[in-house]
Amino acid sequence: MLLGRKASSLWLMSTYFHGGCNGRGVRWAGKVLVTVTVEGSPGPVRAMVRLGGSVEEAIGAVVNVYGREGRSPKLDPAAVPSFQLHHNHFCLQSLNKGDTLDQVGGRNFYLRRSGGGGETTAARCGQEVGSRPQPLVPLCSHRLLAIVAGRLSKIGRKLTKLWRALGCATCG
């Protein structure tokens, strides 16, 4: 009997997190908490979104929560199609708005307003819309190298100041 209770409780937990039915045979989708950093905002926004919901629905939910919290800069809820969702701040390629959240993977994202009037990333880069996008690994690694080089340069400047201070302390 105890084994039966454990099995049923495991089934209930899996249906709670991954969707299930309400006893009458009606399917419902589970919800997940997504954390989205909005460009220009000081902190992330947390919103509950359906697991089977599209990226565009997630953008709409985040913009609504952002507006309800009274954050700055103000976002226009009617301009939801002009926003792009990215995996992180350094990723240049936006997520496809037709994909579902379970297809995209991850729960932390970065939201920014698109530069053009609703055109796709491939069209802005001069590629044909039907062609396969080129991987952005060299650009991302270049940016990472630039960040590391900047940090090393700062460390070098601090060490130079330290050596000057120590050199003057031993002289005087």
Describe the structure.
The chain is 43% helix and 17% strand. By secondary structure, it is an alpha+beta fold. It folds into 2 domains: 2-132, Ubiquitin-like (UB roll), CATH 3.10.20.90; 135-172. The strands form 2 sheets. Strands 4-3-6-5 form a 4-stranded mixed β-sheet, with helices on one face. Strands 1-2 form a two-stranded antiparallel ribbon. It starts with a helix and ends with a helix. Residues 1-17 and 117-139 have low confidence and may be disordered. This is DUF7054 domain-containing protein. It comes from Colocasia esculenta. InterPro entries: At4g22758-like, DUF7054. Residues 30-112 form the DUF7054 domain.
List keywords for this structure.
Ubiquitin-like (UB roll); 172 residues; elongated; 2 domains; alpha+beta; two-stranded antiparallel sheet; single chain; 5 helices; 6 strands; disordered N terminus
